[in-house]
């Protein structure tokens, strides 16, 4: 039997680990040849490849990164223990890696490559694993039920089962991005559409530049355009420019960067999750189409509050007026959106700074108006400094309790995605919820925000304000915030974010061919396109006629399953591991069924 996996990055590697684990049970002693096709290094793939700037770091601490499911992960296949990133570094003598360090992507590349080699060496004798450094461009069904995988090199290969594990995808500009790109071409301007930052050509970026986005892509962009151009951050908190930096005028919807990662551990330990956002609560939601903000978010918010207040009451009881058991019993009885919940918290938590206000967290400058530009710069610097201080002060470890609750929520969301309306999936789940989760839980190390403050004081970074608006007029780009008087003009505009999922505008040749031939189709829910490749609950690719392909699977952020992360925090029953186990076992069953059919 022949299995072809298109992609060899962390997502493919995680699934391969689960395949190898379950192969003895589901294949027995039958021979299986697995071929992974990827132009980038196996294990690391494109995003985590070693040949990128050493200045680019992971945004997770080394102790929070593992590729191996542990005993907390609820899977059907057998578990095979393996080290987390910091444990691997200790075992292999990799220098300067501690549990709470933020290592370079080059170090992570080494870990992922090692994991891939370990998984391959762990395969049973009847399972052979090979890698082709090539790019798959087209799939073709054969009359005998097998598939032909066409390669960029011109030499096709044959497969009984194909799995598409393509990771983050590039996209051709569409909509506003396409209009801005055309405007830039017509007026001799520079426009950089959404893309993976490490792959951008930034040589033409000089002078005044508008930047839309203040998330992780923005952090990478700033690093490459400052330290990457010879500037230096000094121990006294200042920045020494090289003279080659552009001046970055930055803004976004919220107008503020992602929250810094916490620099502490819980004082009291986490409560059991899930509490208010688990299988029982999700199964009891109404049968009809759901709206995320209306039907699901109140449960999510209550779960976040549960994690936050558990740590506050048990870890810092001197800042509360009730014991945890009393508060927890009352909290369990009140809806999130209720006067009773507000009154309960106000009575039990005297300091307003200790109360969880998710709306304020989400839009910190909502309703704020600034008198002038100086007031904006001062307000943003004060906000960022306060965030860094809070995320480094264990007195506020309740924020970490909320973070862990968010992780638990993410693990439960697959149970509800398919029940949401199309509009809610696109606008509320993919856009708002994913943005809020990233903003609160997936920010950079705190020292990156200290560096941002230094760049602001040095005049390299200039904050525009919240609710950023971009206009193309009079041969230039303009930016403004309704909260601040005035506009900023520049000859360059950078979109500091990854492209949204768009199977129609994908730059990937294989997916474009699937769509053109009807062998794959864009997911449409209630007449609303999600931009994703339509797949079944078993991760099978669905064609234009609505039929599931029995031997073609797809996983990743660009699919209906929305699986994004490939590695995860240890001991959290992480969703990526559960998904990888499920699809691996589905693939092995499909191989076995196909083999039995061929023998008959």
Automatic annotation (TrEMBL):
Listed transmembrane segments: none
Record-linked SUPFAM superfamilies: FAD/NAD(P)-binding domain
InterPro entries from the UniProt entry: FAD/NAD-bd_sf (IPR036188), HpyO/CreE_NAD-binding (IPR038732), L-asp_N-monooxygenase_NS-form (IPR052189)
Domain FAD-dependent urate hydroxylase HpyO/Asp monooxygenase CreE-like FAD/NAD(P)-binding: 4-168
Protein name: FAD/NAD(P)-binding protein
Species, as recorded: Cryptosporangium phraense
Highest classification ranks of the organism: Bacteria, Bacillati, Actinomycetota, Actinomycetes, Cryptosporangiales
């Amino acid at each position: 039997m022949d299995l072809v996996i298109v992609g060899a990055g962390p997502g493919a590697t995680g699934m391969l680990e689960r395949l190898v684990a379950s192969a003895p049970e589901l294949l027995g002693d039958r021979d299986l040849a697995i071929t992974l096709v990827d132009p980038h290094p196996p294990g690391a793939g494109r995003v985590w490849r070693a040949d990128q700037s050493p200045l680019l770091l992971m945004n997770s601490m080394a102790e929070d990164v593992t590729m191996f499911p542990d005993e907390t992960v609820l899977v059907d296949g057998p578990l095979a223990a393996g080290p987390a990133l910091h444990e691997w570094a200790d075992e292999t003598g990799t220098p300067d890696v501690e549990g709470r360090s933020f290592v370079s992507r080059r170090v992570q590349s080494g870990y992922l490559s090692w994991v891939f080699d370990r998984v391959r060496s762990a395969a049973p004798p009847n399972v052979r694993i090979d890698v082709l450094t090539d790019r798959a461009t087209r799939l073709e069904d054969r009359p005998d039920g097998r598939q032909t995988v066409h390669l960029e090199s011109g030499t096709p290969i044959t497969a009984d089962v194909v799995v598409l594990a393509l990771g983050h995808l590039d996209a051709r500009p569409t909509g506003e991005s396409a209009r801005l790109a055309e405007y830039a071409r017509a007026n001799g301007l520079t426009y950089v559409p959404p893309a993976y930052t490490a792959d951008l050509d930034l040589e033409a970026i000089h002078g005044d530049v508008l930047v839309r986005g203040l998330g992780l892509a923005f952090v990478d962009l700033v690093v490459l355009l400052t330290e990457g151009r010879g500037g230096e951050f000094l121990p006294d908190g200042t920045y020494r420019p090289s003279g080659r930096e552009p001046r970055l005028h930055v803004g976004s919807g919220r107008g503020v960067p992602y929250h810094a990662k916490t620099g502490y551990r819980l004082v009291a330990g986490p409560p059991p999750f899930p509490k208010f956002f688990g299988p029982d609560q999700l199964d009891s939601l109404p049968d009809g189409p759901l709206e995320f903000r209306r039907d699901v978010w109140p449960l999510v918010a209550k779960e976040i509050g549960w994690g936050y207040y558990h740590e506050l009451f048990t870890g810092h009881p001197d800042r509360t007026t009730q014991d945890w058991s009393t508060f927890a019993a009352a909290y369990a009885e009140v809806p999130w959106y209720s006067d009773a919940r507000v009154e309960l918290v106000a009575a039990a938590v005297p300091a307003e700074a200790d109360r969880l206000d998710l709306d304020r967290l989400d839009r910190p400058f909502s309703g704020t108006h600034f008198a002038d530009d100086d007031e904006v710069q001062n307000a943003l610097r004060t906000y960022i400094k306060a965030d860094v201080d809070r995320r480094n002060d264990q007195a506020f470890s309740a924020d970490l309790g909320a973070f862990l609750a968010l992780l638990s929520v993410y693990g439960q969301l697959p149970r509800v995605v398919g029940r949401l309306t199309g509009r809610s999936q696109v606008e509320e789940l993919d856009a708002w919820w994913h943005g809020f989760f990233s903003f609160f839980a997936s920010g950079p190390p705190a020292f990156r925000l200290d560096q941002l403050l230094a760049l602001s004081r040095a005049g390299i970074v200039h904050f525009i304000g919240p609710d950023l608006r971009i206009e193309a007029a009079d041969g230039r780009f303009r930016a403004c915030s309704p909260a601040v008087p005035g506009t900023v003009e520049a000859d360059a505009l950078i979109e500091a974010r990854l492209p949204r999922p768009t199977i129609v505008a994908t730059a990937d040749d294989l997916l474009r061919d699937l769509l053109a031939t009807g062998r794959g189709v864009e997911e449409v829910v209630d007449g609303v396109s999600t931009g994703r490749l339509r797949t079944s609950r078993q991760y099978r690719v669905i064609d234009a006629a609505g039929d599931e392909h029995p031997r073609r699977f797809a996983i990743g952020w660009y699919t209906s399953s929305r699986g994004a992360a490939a590695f995860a925090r240890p001991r959290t029953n992480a969703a990526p591991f559960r998904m990888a186990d499920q699809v691996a076992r589905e693939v092995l069953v499909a191989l076995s069924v196909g083999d039995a059919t061929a023998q008959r």
